[in-house]
Design a protein that fits this description.
- The chain is built from 15 helices and 5 strands.
- With about 325 residues, the protein is α/β, with parallel strands linked by helices.
- A 5-stranded parallel β-sheet has the order 2-3-4-1-5, with helices on both faces.
- It is elongated, with a radius of gyration of 23 Å.
Length: about 325
């Protein structure tokens, strides 16, 4: 697994806690998507499972390290939803928990990595609570999350909270430029659209993905002059519609900033003409109402099973057209 320079300091801090005997058996790691938290957890897991750690590093030579490098360590359990499912059910959780009360196959620690703690169903989370409260000896739970507020309070209370901050923009920009050279304005925009998470920004800057965003911006710019917003449907109606709506909402937010004279704080620094055009079409309250509608639409796409995506997008695009046609839309 790749390692990233901004993980060095948090890794050393976490290892120091375990070396001092203060490391918690249940660690809740809060990080933005694309921040490299999986690499941090993997490194920490290797150290916890290593039979002969060398200071803050795993030895890389013992049988346990070799099993981790091969990806088949029997005492490293990765809990993820089944393929095609968004939630993690109670059966899979119970299966792992039952195995924790047997002797570690390598005679050392046992580590459970749950990358998406929000994916736990309520039943699965409750099944995990007792084990988190009274875990077997030398058993460590590493839980990842994007939104801690979505977790059961009882689950959060049994964990030690750790916030993995995004690296400074300058460091992120340097790292991205080494991976895939791009113009500074595009890198800055990609980082802002990704909440400062370098891996997510690098993924957005991939040529095909960046072109999809550019296409949405061009199409929106064209349709603003005709008020035929329904023509945006083909560029929005894709499997990744939620992310495309994120791009759209950031443009609407930037338009409100533009109206307030805060152009220096735009997220979409490379789309200032489009942002200015959006700001000229509707007033502040109308833009805010429009953005709230799209945020609600995005939430439905992410949380409602079997939602009719095309119908939902069509409904909101027609609402946008109606808002532009309303006589009080300038307010």
């Amino acid at each position: 697994m790749n390692w990233y320079p901004w993980l060095n300091a948090p890794y050393r801090q976490l290892i120091a806690q375990y070396q001092a005997g203060r490391g918690h058996h249940a660690l809740l790691i809060h990080a933005d998507e694309g921040n490299g938290d999986a690499a941090l957890v993997y490194g920490l897991s290797r150290w916890l499972l290593c039979q002969h750690p060398q200071g803050e590093k795993s030895c890389g030579e013992c049988h346990s390290c070799r099993l981790m490098l091969a990806g088949n360590h029997p005492d490293w359990h990765v809990l993820t939803p089944e393929k095609g499912k968004a939630s993690l059910g109670i059966d899979r959780v119970r299966q792992v928990i039952d195995g924790l009360y047997t002797h570690a196959q390598q005679g050392g620690a046992k580590v459970i990595w749950l990358a998406q703690a929000e994916a736990l169903t309520e039943a699965a989370a409750n099944a995990l609570l007792k084990t988190l409260e009274e875990p077997p000896e030398k058993t460590y739970f590493l839980l990842g999350c994007r939104t801690p507020s979505r977790l059961l309070p009882t689950l959060r209370s049994r964990c030690s909270y750790w916030h993995l901050q995004n690296p400074p923009p300058a460091l992120s920009s340097q790292w991205i430029q080494r991976q895939q050279p791009a113009d500074p304005q595009s890198v800055e925009t990609a980082l802002k659209l990704s909440h400062g998470a370098p891996l997510a920004a690098a993924a957005l800057l991939q040529p095909e993905r960046w072109q999809q965003r550019q296409q949405l911006c061009r199409q929106l710019s064209s349709q603003l002059t005709t008020h035929d917003l329904l023509a945006l449907l083909p560029v929005l109606n894709h499997e990744d519609a939620a992310e495309r709506l994120h791009w759209l909402c950031t443009l609407l937010l930037d338009a409100m900033k533009w109206q307030q004279g805060a152009a220096a704080y735009l997220l979409n620094q490379d789309q200032q003409p489009l942002v200015a055009a959006l700001a000229a079409t509707l007033g502040q309250s109308a833009l805010q109402s429009l953005m709230q509608g799209w945020l609600t639409c995005r939430h439905q796409l992410l949380t409602v099973n079997a939602v009719n995506r095309e119908l939902l997008l069509t409904e909101h695009l027609l609402a946008w057209e109606a808002l532009l046609a309303a006589p009080d839309s300038a307010f």
